[in-house]
Amino acid sequence: MTQPQGAHLVGSVNYDDAETTMRTASAILGRRLRRLPDGEVGTRFHWIMFQPDVLGQAEGIERVGDEPIPFRAGIDARPLRIAQGTDAAGIRLPALGYASAAIDSYVVFSRLRAAGELAEGARFQVSLPTPLAVISSFFSGDDRAAIEPVYTAAILGEVDEILAAIPHDDLAIQWDVASEMGIIERAAGYGKVIEAWWPGDAFDGLVSRLAALVDAVPADVEVGVHLCYGDAGEKHFVEPTDAANLVRYANAVTAASARDLTWLHLPVPIERDDEAYFAPLAGLSYDGELYLGLVHREDGVQGAERRIAAARPFTPEFGVATECGIGRAPAGTTEDILRTHAELAATW
After folding, report:
1. Helices and strands in the chain: count of H runs, count of E runs
2. How far apart are CA 132 and CA 19, in angstroms?
3. Per residue, what are the HEC states of 205-260?
4. Which residues contact 130 (CB under 8 A, 6 or more apart)?
5. pLDDT at site 71
6. What is the dihedral of CA 194, 295, 127, 135, to 10 degrees?
7. Residue 2 lies in a domain
8. Where residue 289 sits, what CATH number does that domain have?
């Protein structure tokens, strides 16, 4: 079997610090990787779960409930609401934490590169949640529409800060897109069906929002999209019937975006090594870097090779990835997962 071209790390990696993540990934995967993430270490380890603790500091935003809801790493998972009588347009959010983390990790990236410990030509990858993920997860009712422009402006402000601090030819930005797939699939997330809050067709709103985020990244910076079905306890919030909704959404977003997408990542459930899952990929209108998330720690190289064989009739050129980040994988499994990528993928 001809090897897939290259590998992609979605974002989170199960190490405690950015240096270990980048050094280990580069040592094992080398020139198979065009981009290196920092592993989403620290408070970002559990994706967006730290954002309520950040947003709850803003005047005009309250936590729902009197008692904290303990989450891992000391996080309080209580949802949020706009305080009664508060004009959401006047709320000033604190720094969200994404820009400062990226800037700190880029210092590590630069030092390791200067020491010759990173693959030549690799860019520094910053993975960011879409505003919709945070809003749909932690706000309810009319508060969602009210806070959306405020939070969107804040996350784009973080992007601007990253763009100002990191040379553009070193940078790659990935938008992590999970809750959007939940709306498309009418799935339950955080105990309730994930629903749109804007008038008109929900799908059209999802397309326009993600296309605007893609276009917010300048043309001299790489931009990617990771479509996702969640990763709570290594489980999806819903199992897709096939790749049809992924393809439909990706096609619509790339058509609506003013700039080209550098890479696209699509997940593949572990149970799906049948051609029926992959058949919709024949209709994917995209010719950039495509990565299929068909690597799973539970069945390693053999399972991934079955899924590669099933995908090839419909999309012969693609690289490999896991279906989501590997930050929540069991301790001690990370290097084996990285080696599986290396065994499956050719260098660029």
Report:
1. 11, 11
2. 30
3. HHHHHHHHHHHCCCCCCEEEEEECCCCECCECCCCCCCCHHHHHHHHHHHHHCCCC
4. 175, 176, 177, 179, 180, 209, 210, 213
5. 85
6. 10
7. no
8. 3.20.20.210
Domain that holds residue 70: 18-344
The tally of domains found in the chain comes to: 1
- The per-residue pLDDT for range 190-220, each reduced to its tens digit, is 566 788 999 999 999 999 999 999 999 999 9
Is residue 7, in this structure, part of any structural domain at all? no
Which residues have CB under 8 Å from 101's CB, separation 6+?
Answer: 38, 42, 44
Q: CA–CA separation, 225 vs 176, rounded Å?
A: 6
Q: Is residue 93 in a domain?
A: yes
User: What band does 236 get if pLDDT is binned at 50, 70 and 90?
Assistant: low
**Using one digit for the tens of pLDDT, what is the confidence trace for 2-34?**
899 999 999 899 999 999 999 999 999 999 999
How far apart, in whole angstroms, are the C-alpha atoms of residue 339 and residue 344?
9
6 lies in some domain = no
User: Rounded to an integer, what is the distance from CA 215 to the centroid of its chain?
Assistant: 17
Per-residue pLDDT tens over the stretch 52-76: 999 999 999 999 998 988 887 789 9
Can you tell me the distance from the alpha carbon of 96 to that of 123, in angstroms, rounded to the nearest whole number? 23
Burial class (CB in 10 A: 0-12, 13-18, 19+), 331: exposed
Nearest in space to 96 (alpha carbons), one of 56, 46, 140, 149: 56
- The Cα 261–Cα 193 span in angstroms is 30
Closest CA to 105 of 28, 25, 50, 48: 25
Q: Which two tokens stand for residue 180?
A: 């959007």
Place of tokens 């959404």: 249
Residue-wise pLDDT tens digits, 284-315: 999 999 999 999 999 999 999 999 999 999 99
Query: Taking the alpha carbons of 32, 34, 40, 45 in that order, is the dihedral positive or negative?
Result: negative
Sheet of 289-295, strands arranged across:
35-36, 123-129, 171-177, 222-227, 263-267, 289-295, 319-322
State whether residue 39 is helix, strand or coil: strand
Task: Give CA torsion, residues 146, 147, 152, 158, to 10 deg.
Answer: 150
